[in-house]
Amino acid sequence: MFRTVVAPVLAGVHAFAEGRFDAAATWLLPLEPSLVRLGGSAAQREIVEDTLLHALLAAGRLTEARAVLERRLDRRPSRRDLRRLGALPVASAGR
Questions:
Q1: Structural domains of the chain, ranges and CATH numbers in brackets
Q2: Is the pLDDT score of 13 beyond 70?
Q3: Which residues, other chains included, contact 80 with Cβ-Cβ below 8 Å and sequence gap of 6+?
């Protein structure tokens, strides 16, 4: 689990802290389905998901950010995520 989940989360958070948002998103996006394996509360896992979302937005990867927001809204309601989703362009040139 360390090699497949923990190490990539740390690499993604480190890249985010350095302002390398595209790299952070690249590290974190494939982990999204595996975050539950880390344990902890849903709120703790959501911190990683929020980091991913902010990295995607900062990197201009709007299509992927939209997909993350839509999955989150399918899982649970959030006015903040609804506002974020509404602020995204309908069709984006991002990845």
A1: 2-87 (1.25.40)
A2: yes
A3: none
